[in-house]
Design a protein that fits this description.
Blueprint (H helix, E strand, L loop, with lengths): L3 H10 L15 H6 L6 E4 L7 E9 L1 E6 L20 E2 L23 H9 L4 E5 H6 L5 E5 L6 E8 L5 H10 L17 H24 L2 H23 L6
Parallel strand pairs: 4-5
Antiparallel strand pairs: 1-7, 2-7, 3-5, 3-6
Length: 247
């Protein structure tokens, strides 16, 4: 996972609440969540939803990791048929859930994906993994190509259902792209300091300016004064309207 964007948004919205990232192998993610080692985590589906909530985020491309001088490196994409003669490594922490592994099996299964990457670099076989894992274990002497018909890996955000706190809801909203003003799924945002400042400023202005400004605030008060003068002007207009010849 590369959660850089979501971490940046979190730091902008909640600068006083530190967000700590914890990297763990895929097989240990659920235990970390259940053991309160993390408030939420990015996991691969399926999720045992007995006590965990999950929101699917996206489906990840599966790729084949190969040495740079491998014949497969000459093409843009490979299929499982292209791997029929290859030793395809199958680490114990595999996250793809193959029904039938392509190619030829190795004598032993590597314990971890990192171990399998070392074997690929040694020319012992090739490895199919989600693209993010290929990037995580990047080496200068290795490359990868998309696998057109391999199993896909779906990534989700998961958290213990019993510990759905306001901060967890805030992080869920950030990951799902909610704006800062959205109240969906969390308590309404309290009035912003700027709004309160305007209200206070209005009260202070009224206090400082006294009756002059408080009288100006209601439009009827000021127009009433003008209206009185306008009313006294009306008889004058009437006098000026009388014919002068009658005097």
């Amino acid at each position: 996972m590369t959660p850089t964007k979501w971490v940046r948004i979190w730091n902008e919205r909640l600068p006083d609440v530190p967000l700590t990232l914890v990297g763990v192998p895929a097989a240990e993610a659920y235990g970390l969540l259940r053991g309160s080692g993390a408030d939420a985590g990015f996991v691969r589906l399926p999720v045992d939803d007995a006590d965990l909530s999950a929101i699917p985020l996206y489906t990840e491309q599966t790729v084949v990791v190969i040495p740079k001088d491998h014949v497969v490196a000459a093409v843009e994409e490979v299929s499982t048929e292209d791997l029929a003669d290859e030793i395809v490594l199958h680490p114990l922490d595999d996250v793809l859930g193959w029904e039938t592994l392509p190619g030829r099996p190795a004598f032993e299964r590597p314990e971890t994906t990192a171990d399998a990457i070392e074997l690929v670099a040694a020319g012992i076989g090739v490895l199919a993994v989600p693209q993010s894992l290929a990037r995580l274990h990047h080496r200068k002497d290795l490359t990868y190509r998309p696998l057109s018909d391999g199993p896909e890996s779906r990534v989700a955000l998961s958290w213990p259902e019993e510990r759905t706190t306001d901060l967890v809801e805030e992080f869920i909203g950030i990951v799902r792209g909610r704006t800062v003003n959205s109240t969906r799924g969390r308590p309404p945002t309290p009035p912003q300091p700027k709004t309160r400042g305007r209200a206070d400023a209005g009260g202070k202005a009224g206090a400082k300016s006294g009756g002059a400004k408080s009288g100006a605030k209601p439009a009827a008060g000021k127009s009433g004064g003008k209206g009185g003068r306008a009313g006294s002007a009306a008889p004058k207009a009437a006098k000026r309207g009388k014919p002068r010849g009658r005097r």
